[in-house]
Amino acid sequence: MHVHFRDTVVLIAFLSLAGCKSDQGEAVTNSLIQEAKQKFAPDRRTVVFDVDGRLEGQRLILTGEVHDATLKGQLMDYLRSTTKYEIVDSVTVLPETGLGEKTFGVVTVSVANVRSKPGHSAEMASQALLGTPLKVLKKQHGWYYVQTPDQYLGWLDDGFELMDRTGYEAWSQCLKVIVTAAYGFTRQSPDIESQVVSDVVAGDLLGMVGESRGHYKVQYPDGREGFLPKNHAQPYRLWLAEVRETPENVIRTAHRFFGVPYLWGGTSAKGFDCSGFTKTVYFLNGVLLPRDASQQVMVGSIIDTGVDMENLNTGDLLFFGSKATPEQEARVTHVAIYLGRKKFIHSSGDVRINSFDPSDPDFSEYRLGTFLHARRIIGAGPETGIRRLNELPFYRGHEL
To answer: Where do the structural domains in the chain lie, given as residue ranges?
Structure first.
């Protein structure tokens, strides 16, 4: 994470009140911490920056936690360069020491539900597919705080295998298969009548042990084994070498999920929210998009859509929401994939097609009225924030 040291005027003004009384000192501290949070961790969905501070005389005592030692170092350097207080550092860098060596994890169920808080009644913020690597940051009341490869943070209580670095590296480097069918099952033997081991969905990754009677013999991250029909999967290295995010491939993948119901937090063939749909479609074409629509709008190439959408290309991401006003900036709340001819496919109630054209039976006046702008993912370079699986360590078969 790269942080530029700028905009220090407000902080210096706050810290010029060093001789203030206790209540003023508390206000200085609160303002300082809030300003630092905005500067160093504007998106709490991807960065742990839970830092608090209190003044004791000329000492500023910092407590809390961050997820990255580099981030903590940048914060401390910044504070020491902008204040005359003595900084007392009691900020913990995750993973917490209580986890020991087991600070890695790999999802062991077809789809793991990632919660916003440590509890089954908490909002489902996202999902992680079978075989997804996890950074394990801390444990609380039987729940684990984890980070997925798209940097998203959330809580899991089950559905993944805790590992140390040695175990994780062994898993990450083993031969794998990727599930290509939208939905399927592994079984205890290569026989359609045999006992189910688990369900699987498109994008799941399993270790490949061997082949038998039209099936791959597969292994789960927790050691279970099963048999997966070959027409439901492909050797991962072969798939990764061939996968491309061409307009034709992206649209073909999107159409495969037509009619799948909307699910808040869903990022799998079992159910999608709007950004979960676009994320999954692009993942199955070799691109790892950020999790949410308001994050996806920050990557890819900016497009001037033209007067009548004439500059849009098939596969572009379309973003919708609240338009900017003098009082507030535009707010992105929805995303879709452009199909051409003013049509787009998205998850809204279910995966469906709508149109910007008033003469089209699929016309959506609401979506036309809330359209904001578009981004081009296909062909966009890494400088635009696009991350391709064949460029990422785990997905290439190396360590996290």
So the answer is: 9-94, 98-172, 174-236, 247-388
Catalytic residue among 67, 141, 334, 398: 334
Domain boundaries 247-388, CATH class: alpha beta
What's the pTM?
0.90
Choice among 215, 255, 274, 398 that is catalytic: 274
What does DSSP say about strands 59-66 and 86-93: parallel, antiparallel, or unpaired?
Answer: parallel
pLDDT in tens, 34-44: 787 888 888 99
Give me the CATH topology for the region 174-236: SH3 type barrels. (2.30.30)
Whole-number Å distance between alpha carbons of 354 and 335: 12
Q: State whether CATH 3.30.300 applies to domain 9-94.
A: yes
Domains 98-172 and 247-388 share a fold: no
Give the tens place of pLDDT for each residue, 193-239: 999 999 999 999 999 999 999 999 999 999 999 999 999 999 999 99
- Extract the tokens encoding 82: 């902008």
Q: Which of 120, 232, 346, 398 is catalytic?
A: 346
Amino acid 57: pLDDT: 85
Cβ neighbors of 1 (< 8 A, separation 6 or more) are 47, 68, 70, 71, 74
The verdict on whether 346 is a catalytic residue reads yes
Calpha distance 46→40 (Å, rounded): 12
Do 136 and 104 touch, CB atoms closer than 8 A? yes
Identify whether 398 is a catalytic site residue.
no
Residue 143: pLDDT band (50, 70, 90) is very high
State yes or no: is 274 an active-site residue: yes
Mean pLDDT of the chain: 91
CATH architecture, domain 98-172: Roll (2.30)
Encode pLDDT of 250-278 as tens digits.
Answer: 999 999 999 999 999 999 999 999 999 99
